Backbone:
């Protein structure tokens, strides 16, 4: 039985009727951008995350970019980010003209640590942007303590982690601002591109983010800053609001499947393959990805084996940011971020979406166990 890496149709068919009905209302009203659905979504997601303010954006990339712009990050500034992340984390820093300062990772959580962040701080550091990779929070108490000691703002990249929890809080409640993505593959996915910026508690910054989203304009045709067009459209907000009541169930479905793998794959030893760790105290990994580490240089062979069996899997990410051609000008050398480079050779993400059946999970497990001769 083939098992795709991700299948969106079953989830979307569950909300189709509600969305079609809402779309009909949008067409009747013909208000397509930043209308009542966007406002409603902002209110609902601020409540969901516990951040005070939420601003709907056109994508996760823009949600992070607008946060940097609201802090006036510019050429000559440095922003500390992990090298092991989706490209957008680095892209937005470079887009402001600032210099991305790439740091290594904790090999168990795949995330940045407070010590790595602190070691990268210089007098030019103007922001720290930890990423909650794959659905697991980075060490936010530790990173916030370092940031506060040095008086540096923090932007959480929660593009993969809306709903992730730890230390009694949720993604979006730690940093000054937080960027989220609703790209269709996320746990809460739109029918196209969409994102959202949380502002933890600063009303002035929230007003600035709102203004920057519409070319720095307030009131109409008066432009205070050169902002961007980062507006969210009504249709995406409608889809996200229709799905939001199901999100907790989907997170729990992913968690259940992750734990099913933990129980079923005990015959594979850690020197063969390492399963993801839920390292956050009182936390909740929301498994946007279920990412294993394949040891002994066997990752590519396992990927080929699973593909032959019709089992979807993917490498996130094969080339980390400090090794990307567009960042060669920064002068990083191979070997400089050793744990990151090793992770990019060992990681493999497996299907974990909530609609998987036990037979599908068993198919993946059998493929893995068979590869290791178990
Ligand atoms: C870690 C991370 N940062 C930023 C982004 C950018 O989000 P978007 O694709 O919505 O622009 C993503 C999305 O894939 C992501 O995974």
Residues:
């Amino acid at each position: 039985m083939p098992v795709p890496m991700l299948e969106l149709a079953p989830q979307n068919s569950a909300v189709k009727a509600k969305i079609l009905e809402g779309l009909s209302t949008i067409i009747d009203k013909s208000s397509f951008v930043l209308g009542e659905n966007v406002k409603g979504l902002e209110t609902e997601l601020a409540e969901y995350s516990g951040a005070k303010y939420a601003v709907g954006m056109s994508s996760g990339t823009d949600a992070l970019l607008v946060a940097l712009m609201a802090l006036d990050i510019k050429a000559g500034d440095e922003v500390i980010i992990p090298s092991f992340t989706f490209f957008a984390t680095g892209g937005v820093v470079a887009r402001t003209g600032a210099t991305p300062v790439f740091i290594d990772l904790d090999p168990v959580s795949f995330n940045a640590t407070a010590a790595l962040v602190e070691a990268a701080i210089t007098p030019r550091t103007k922001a720290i942007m930890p990423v909650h990779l794959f659905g697991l929070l980075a060490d936010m108490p530790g990173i916030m303590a370092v940031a506060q000691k040095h008086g540096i703002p923090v932007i959480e990249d929660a593009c993969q982690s809306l709903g992730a929890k730890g230390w009694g809080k949720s993604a979006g409640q730690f940093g000054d601002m937080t960027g989220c993505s609703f790209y269709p593959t996320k746990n809460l996915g739109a029918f196209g591109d969409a994102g959202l910026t949380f502002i933890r508690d600063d009303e002035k910054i929230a007003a600035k983010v709102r203004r920057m989203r519409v070319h720095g304009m307030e009131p109409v045709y008066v432009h205070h800053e050169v902002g961007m067009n980062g507006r969210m459209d009504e249709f995406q907000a409608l889809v996200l609001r229709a799905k939001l009541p199901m999100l907790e169930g989907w997170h729990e479905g992913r968690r259940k499947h992750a734990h099913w793998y933990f129980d079923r794959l005990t015959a594979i030893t850690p020197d063969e393959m390492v399963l993801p760790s839920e390292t956050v105290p009182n936390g909740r990994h929301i498994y946007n990805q279920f990412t294993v580490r394949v040891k002994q240089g066997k990752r590519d062979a396992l990927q080929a084996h699973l593909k032959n069996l019709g089992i979807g899997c993917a490498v996130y990410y094969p080339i980390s940011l400090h090794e990307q051609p567009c960042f060669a000008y920064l002068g990083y050398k191979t070997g400089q971020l050793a744990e990151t480079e090793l992770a990019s050779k060992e990681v493999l993400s497996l299907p974990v979406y909530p609609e998987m059946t036990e037979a599908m999970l068993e198919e993946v497990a059998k493929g893995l166990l068979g590869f290791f001769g178990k």
